[in-house]
Known about the structure:
Blueprint: E1 2-8, E2 11-20, H1 22-34, E3 42-53, H2 55-71, E4 74-78, H3 82-91, H4 93-96, E5 98-100
Parallel strand pairs: 2-3, 3-4, 4-5
Antiparallel strand pairs: 1-2
Helix pairs in contact: 1-2
Amino acid sequence: MEIIIKNQGTETLVELVGRLDTLASQEITPQMTGLQDKADGVIILDCKKLEYISSSGLRLFLTLRKAAAVKGGKVIVRSISPEIRNVFMMTGFLNLFQVED
């Protein structure tokens, strides 16, 4: 699992590459927690290269969304595959996040 963070003014682009399973979630937790400092702006989670997401990965997304809600920011999930869109639909995450193609 690879995470690439790019700051673009008031927006932060986060590219997720690979499988976001339980082990990968533990590995990237420090980086995702660090993003909470930027939760007052717009955080874009680019999932075009994300192959899989587990419940642990979903929890990271949700934690970031909660931090953004408290700070008046926004989290956008972009370019999810049909498989991950299905997971979002089944878990209710499609209603929690702004999802863009």
